[in-house]
Amino acid sequence: MPTAIAVTGADLVLPPTDPQTPNAAVLADPAARGLDDSVTELRRLVDRFGHVIVVCPASAPAAVAHRLHTVRGLLESDRIALVRTDLPPLGAAVLVRQLRQLSACDFSPGVLASAARLLAHYIYAGAVLGSVSRLDRVPVTLGSHLKSWLPGAHFAVLAGPTPRIVRVGADETAFAGPEFTTRLLIARGQLATDWPTASLAPRWAVAGPAEETVLPASSPAWWGTPKLVEFAAYLSDLPVLHQLVASVRRETCHWCGMELIGDRCGFCAAPLPGGTPVQAGPTR
């Protein structure tokens, strides 16, 4: 039985890549449901699937994370992993879909939960913005702030894995992308531009046509403006994702006994003693 992937909002659930990709369970908003209902909701998932990995963006309201920790504490369950991610909304949704794909494979719950940090490193998540004057989640230079007041100025912003901001049409060559084959997902806001598909995709050697989806409701707040087109370049093929995760040495958590990869347990968050294992990257 696959490990259940749960999310804190419907915006984190993208259409499956194939019929074998499991769906994700969307947990109810704490503001709309009492604590007892939240406990029942997660208990049912644990009883049905054995282990549950809950992906919660770091940008989610504090009440959401607090409710998750409270429920896990009340259930006294070591079979619930709470995965936080700093990725912007569209990138976080891509991460969730990758975890859903991998949940149908032969990975243990511990490896799957700790793989989230590894996978996030290979998601190039960004946006084209009409202004960076209210952008506070990516470092913005004074020059970029001043240029954002110029009429018609657009900015390409990369939130991760390495933050970067360039003015569209000026210094785009500095907007380096992944050194491996990716697919491109875009979500359009109120900004009229084809830059991600017309300029970015060829420069980053994106494979195939871009996939389009609805802009997550939380994206305008995350990026500081509704005038945007959000994008994410990512590894889409399940065999590549499987090889990436399988190539990393597995360890056993000294605290909870779960299997893990990387430097931290995905279930109890205990660090791995003695440093970080070497991680392999994808190939073209």
Description:
- This protein has 284 residues and is an alpha/beta fold.
- It has 2 domains: 4-118 and 248-260, 3-Layer(aba) Sandwich (Rossmann fold); 124-234, Hypothetical Protein Tm841, Chain: A,domain 3 (2-Layer Sandwich), CATH 3.30.1180.
- The chain has helices spanning 35-49, 62-75, 89-103, 109-120, 142-147, 195-203, 219-223, 238-246; strands spanning 4-7, 25-26, 52-57, 80-85, 124-129, 155-160, 164-167, 183-188, 211-213, 228-234, 251-252, 259-260.
- The strands form 3 sheets. It has a 6-stranded mixed beta sheet with strand order 7-6-5-10-8-9, sandwiched between helices. It has a 4-stranded parallel beta sheet with strand order 2-1-3-4, with helices on both faces. Strands 11-12 form a two-stranded antiparallel sheet.
- Strand 11 (251-252) and strand 12 (259-260) form a beta hairpin.
- Helix 1 crosses helix 2 (62-75).
- The longest helix has 15 residues, at 35-49.
- The radius of gyration is 19 Å and the shape is globular.
Give the domain tally: 2
- Proper CATH architecture of the largest domain: 3-Layer(aba) Sandwich
Number of helices, counting only DSSP H or I runs of 4 residues or more = 8
Helix content: 25-40%
Low-confidence stretches: none
Number of DSSP E strands: 12
At the third CATH level, what is the topology name of the largest domain?
Rossmann fold
Give average pLDDT, whole number: 91
What is the 3D form? globular
What profile does the largest beta sheet have?
A: 6 strands, mixed
SSE class: alpha/beta
> Numbering strands along the chain, what is their spatial order in the largest sheet?
7-6-5-10-8-9
Q: If you compute it from the alpha carbons, what radius of gyration comes out, rounded to the nearest whole angstrom? A: 19 Å
Distance between the termini: 32 Å
What would CATH call the class of the largest domain? Alpha Beta
Order of helices and strands: EEHEHEHHEHEEEHEHEHEE
Strand content: 15-25%
